[in-house]
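Data deposition worksheet. Section B asks for the primary sequence of the deposited chain exactly as it was used as input, without tags or linkers unless they were present during the calculation. Section C holds the resulting structure in token form. Section D is free text for depositor observations; keep each observation to a single sentence. Incomplete worksheets are returned to the depositor.
Section A, Depositor: J.P.
Section B:
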Amino acid sequence: MWFFEVINNKDAAFLLFHTAKDWLEARRMQAMDGPINFGERNAFWGLLVEGFTEPTYQMNYNPPYYKDFFEAFGFKDYFRQLSFGLPVDMARPEKYKQFYARLLRQGYRFEHAKKNNLKKYAEDFRTIYNQGWQNFHNFHEMSREQSLAILKSMKPVMIDYLLWFGYYKDEPVAMFIMLPELNQWFKHLHGNLNWWGMIKFLYYKTFGHNDKIFGTVFGVVPQHQRKGVEAGIVMAADKVVRPKNKWKWIELTWIADFNPKMVHTCETIGGKIVKTHVTYRMMFDPNAPFQRHPIVE
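Section C:
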């Protein structure tokens, strides 16, 4: 089940659910998930159930009553997407500093992207993604064209020193992609993206207040996990981002509860859960066993 929107009326909500269910059953489907989007999981996925504060860019925002409709109809919690928030100037764990120093001695290095070399970083992005996410359910290998399109789409709002890559002997092994919280600028446009809206966006992007960033991608290839590389790339970014004294708050988004290693990393650096989204699943056969999303080891 894709995007979902309904007034605060149970009958209306159930009519939408039944319509989707009937359509899927007619095509021999056995279950439906939702709410999800038409593409990859990284944007507009899941139902907001906790943390009804200012919405984060490309994260679903919905009224609290949606949760009751989903669960009353028979949907169950398939997995949760956690968003961790923390101050940018929070002290990092002492062991992170030790990991960082040791990694540099062992041949690792870390650098942030440069806009004038997007093709290079797009290929690094693709390499890390295809290795690091291959064990995830419904994984689809990313092509060169897709990775370049992703970075090009970021370019108008990209700040070089917020996109970090880690290397081992020049082999890309880790990435930590952050962006400015675009809703801090978009909220002034009131949904209007015509020519005047774009002028206003450029104005607020240049002169407006924005002290929040969000981490949208964080990953280490399997061969280099459990070596402190996560800590290393965090410390490398910290040494550049913190002295700018521009960003006050960072939100690490879309950390799935089936990925305990990433949950642990976010907790270790001091992150606290500030938003929770749920991807629901409903089995059409009420006697069919329900299983949550498998844990990624």
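Section D:
The longest strand covers residues 76-87.
The beta strands are 31-34, 47-50, 76-87, 108-112, 163-168, 171-180, 212-220, 249-256, 272-283.
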